[in-house]
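Students often ask why we bother predicting the structure of a whole assembly rather than each chain alone. The short answer is interfaces. A chain on its own may look different once its partners are present, and contacts between molecules only exist in the joint model. In this exercise we take two input lines together and write out one structure for the complete complex. Read the inputs first and try to guess which parts will touch.
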Amino acid sequence: MANYFESFLTRREMFRLGSAAATGSYFLPLIKPHNVRAASKVSPRGSARFAIFVMLDGGQSHVDAWDLKEHQWTPQDFDIREIQPGVKWPMAIYPKLAKMMDKYALIRSAAAWDAVHGRAQYYVQAAHPLNLALKKELPPMGAVVASEYAGRRRESDSLPPYVAINVTASQAGLLPSGFLPAAYSPFHLNTTTDLSAFSPDPEGKKELLRRWELLKTFDDRLRSDPSLQAKAFRDYNDHYEGATRLMADPRSAAVFRFSAEDKTRYGNSTTGDAAILARNLIEADAGTNFIFLQQNGWDHHKDIYLKKNHWDHSVELDNALSALLHDLSATRRPNGKTLLEETLVFCLGEFGRTPGPLNTGLNGRDHYPNCYTVLAAGGGIKGGKIIGRTDEMGAKVVDPQWAGKRPIYMEDIATTVYSALGIDWTKTLTNTPSGRTFYYVEPLSATQVIVNKEIGELFG
Amino acid sequence: MKHLAVFLFAILGLAQNPLPKDHPEVKRGRRQQASRLTAEIAGGASAKASPVSRRNFIDEHIFGRMEKDRVPHAPLAGDYEFFRRVHLDLTGRLPKPEETRAFASSSDPDKRDRLIDKLTQSEAYKAKWAYWFSDLAQVNSNRLGTDGRNLFYQYIYDFLHLDRPYNEVVEEILTTRAASNYYIGPASYLVRWVVIGATCTDTVHEDTSDEIAIWSAKHFLGINLQCVSCHDGRGHLEKINPWMATRKREELWKQAAFFGRTRILRRAEVQTTKDEYSIDDKGEGYDARARSVVRVPRNGKGMVEPEFFLTGERPQPGKPLRQEFVRILTSHPQFARATVNMLWAEMMGVGIVDPVDDFDFSRMDPSAKTPEGWPLQPSHPELLDALAKDFANNGYSLRRLFRLIAKSSAYQLSSRFPGEWKDSYAKYYARKFVRRLTSEEMYDSIVGATNMFSPIPVPNRGMYVDYATEARSPEDFRRHKDINFFMESFGQPNRDYSPRTNDGAITQAVLMMNSPMVKEKIRAAPGSYLGGLLAQQPALGDDEIIGRLFLRFLVRPPLEKEMAMARGLLTRNRTGGFEDLQWLLLNKVDFIFNY
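Now the answer. The structure tokens for the assembled complex follow.
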């Protein structure tokens, strides 16, 4: 009985399609999205090269955090102080961020389109409403950025363009690249798993490379012979080549390093580790431009003021985010720019939580889309700014305080991200599987037509 | 006014950007993709085409067509190829070396049929298809609560075990009433689709009815009502499905109105966010004026009366609506057609109608004219009808259907093709299509081959399972973070909003080559398969162990060349060499494809 897979060796001429290109180009654009059009002339800002989203999965209670509303139900031990004229702050749970308001801005006039986790989380990743008919094909923001940045990729880049960290508990899950090439799908890393696979120690690296060489000879020549152009195998082999490059890249050791000192400074937590990884990725500048990092467990319907709920999550976030912003602003590239100047950071939940008294019976807060707070930093964003004013309760936007003259939605944030990254956000793609035009930023939001705008106020 | 603007915008958007000529889903379907993949992976073979015997009516249709159109086909798969494939397709797991050897050496002319009969009775078969149907119904604990999910899984497993008539099962899951889905298993099918509004206890009635109409039509009629749940087909679906392009949103409402009295409520006295629901028939009907939290506003005129989407048939006056829906649904031939087509696609790689949930009734009938520029949709319309009739006439038995397909020569063709392959042969099923293993198959193949299991806990059941397909839903893996990460990386869906993907990725290669999980499993540890072979007394020779490892991982003996290479690995360090060999076998190309 002849070996099944041996058969193509005897017929290898079938796979020859002329001269061969070298492999290892997995992330370079093999398939170009075509029919790309730009609808209008806009000038993207181009002030950043990286973007980090810090997603507060479940939804943070804005009135107990960055748009604090002090009422009789607010816990006594929040240690509320005025840290800037008009800015009341729960010092007990966000002490570190309190001291660095010059590094970030707060958008208090943010609002979400949806009040259900899955759909609202989808919105944060996609910046488009969840349309079940289009779900399979619609690429998330990170994939769009990856595709736009494909041309800027250098030969030496070994890390994937879009990295997701700790997206382990969301209902939306991680959105794959849709109709864009699979290489632009989020490369997921979970800091609670053993990540040693990605950056083996010298001994492990030696063993890996030895086995990899064995595999190339042991396996059919399909794997090692670049003249064999069968696409499925080329892809398959490219994945292995890409993986080996990543694991063997000396920079990987730095990316996947969590020193004891760092871990302490970032708060010894899952989110702290995620933030260290994000920092390392930006610092390495080895191909990753978009990071979607998630802190899980903000859905405090019940006993929100119990220590393990809002309090602990806030402290974990405070430690991680403050250390991240600090490190990014303290590190300079040879060109003199700090990493924070090159990196746009947005931190937000999929929505806020019900303001006012706690819900009866459960002592928690439920989902609230009408108004909440988003933290934004870096990439040219001016620190210390507060955009938007809400009412006494934090239930309604009283003054949006930006040119849009309405609450700020995910579409506006996407516009801002694309602009800062130098991407024309008015682009559309018509060559989609469904035939429906894909707008980089959707003019039809969940229920109404809006004119999406860059949040220029953030920048000065 | 606002909504009109939205609508106009949508239409204009389409008109300004006409569909590109190379519309991927229209021009290049899964059939072409499968054909390419297979051609690339399986390549050609020197084997000479030989006529195969026609073993049941499937073969009459498949080979009859090829004979008539003079299309050449692959030879029958050899015993090893067949043995591996049929295990993966029917049970999702690899066979044991002893079984493979016994099968290959048996001269029983009926050995393939006997094997198929045995496999379709096995626990692994039930587990695989219980997992598969749970995937289809998107069963998870987030939507159904852990108890609701466990019970629904049990219900699915039991109907497969007992091979209950599928029409009866569908009737039950669509009509069950329950004080709680934590106590009545089949209630969870409908509960799964409940739509939640602004607060956790706010279940949105008409949106829920819409979802039920959409998903039940997808599962039991093979049609996609998603698009017409927001707008009429006209102006949207002409290039996608000409039949659906003529249908209206109002008709979706009428289908949903069969569930207008179906009331699904979160159990209020539980007062938590637990996903425990009651389901009864005390709803007030489907109101087309009702708000929607998930789609374009309805702006209908009032209460909607039920009418079956395919025929316009109405329920008999005074009869319960859900029962009437099931009567009309299961007596329509499309119910059996959609079901057999869906399972045929799982076994054969591509549906007779493909995608399986997008039937287009304007191009079903071979004797009628299809719309200009559109070919007939089914590749084998007569076979589809014959399969559906056979299914309906034989008690809607799933087990019988699987056996019928697996026993056909059509299923048993090799994926190797003698001579030059043409894409146009794909629609004839002239060879077996190659597919990548699913995340669950990958995991189960690894633990099965190495005999290195990591017990997976099933919450609220006080039990542990060894295989991925025995888990109730993907959340069960969360207790093992590394396994969970492995499963996700290989495309496991969360049965919520994240879909299954089956693409390769760098992460997969990293995990296969270097994850602590895989590295641990390939060690010659006590209790591992390799450890057992090495400890055996009297000692086994190198060649024997190499042979068994090949059988275990790849379900075939090594070639001479491979045997020589494997021997070479042992010279440095015998145990280490065998571990290297296991690493190589797991990462070998033929491990990750089903061919």
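Check your guess against this: Chain B has 26 helices and ten strands.
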